[in-house]
Automatic annotation (TrEMBL):
InterPro entries: Complex1_LYR_dom, Complex1_LYR_NDUFB9_LYRM3, NDUFB9. Accessory subunit of the mitochondrial membrane respiratory chain NADH dehydrogenase (Complex I), that is believed to be not involved in catalysis. Complex I functions in the transfer of electrons from NADH to the respiratory chain. The immediate electron acceptor for the enzyme is believed to be ubiquinone. Residues 17-74 form the Complex 1 LYR protein domain. Keywords: Acetylation, Electron transport, Membrane, Mitochondrion, Mitochondrion inner membrane, Phosphoprotein, Respiratory chain, Transport, Ubiquinone. GO terms for cellular component: mitochondrial inner membrane. Its main location: mitochondrion. It comes from the Eukaryota. The lineage of its organism: Eukaryota, Metazoa, Ecdysozoa, Arthropoda, Chelicerata. CDD domains: Complex1_LYR_NDUFB9_LYRM3. The keyword Cytoplasm does not apply. GO terms for biological process: mitochondrial electron transport, NADH to ubiquinone. This is NADH dehydrogenase [ubiquinone] 1 beta subcomplex subunit 9.
Length: 146
């Protein structure tokens, strides 16, 4: 069984760290500018800053540049970062209502008639489920036996 990527406890390569920093830096720029043209301008400047050091061969120097950039980003973080609506922290996170399956049982027959194959298969599967349930747990008691 493999863990989701965000839970894996493996070391990141230098390139992965740089890509992560770049993405976080762009998201920080996105939080700062309301106008798309302003954001794009600053995103291009940010890309130029990263591209300036992309061919650095000395790993110690590259690591020092990365650490300095991490500190700069931490110091420059926007006080109210933008979030995607349906992501954790976003305005719509956890708001989508998922209806239970039993709601379909209360549809009017004319509504069900629009999807005859679906409801025929649904009734068949409901019956199979009831049969499996009764085979495993037995039939439910009548209220008169209590």
């Amino acid at each position: 069984m493999s863990l989701p990527r965000h839970l894996q406890l493996t070391l990141k390569s230098h390139a992965e760290k740089v890509c992560s920093l770049y993405k976080r830096a762009l998201r920080n720029e996105w939080s700062k500018y309301d106008e798309s043209w302003e954001y794009r301008y600053h995103a291009v400047l940010m890309r130029a800053r990263f591209d300036k050091h992309k061919d650095e061969k000395d790993l110690r120097k590259a690591k020092a540049i990365l650490e300095a950039a991490e500190k700069e980003l931490e110091k420059d973080l926007h006080y109210q970062p933008r979030k995607f609506g349906f992501s954790p922290g976003g305005i719509n996170y956890g708001r989508e209502v998922t209806l239970s399956d039993w709601v379909l049982d209360y549809w009017h027959p004319l509504e069900k008639a629009r999807y005859p194959e679906y409801f025929a298969r649904r009734e068949q599967r409901k019956q199979e489920f009831i049969e499996r349930w009764e085979k495993k747990y037995g039939k439910p008691f009548d209220d008169h036996h209590h």
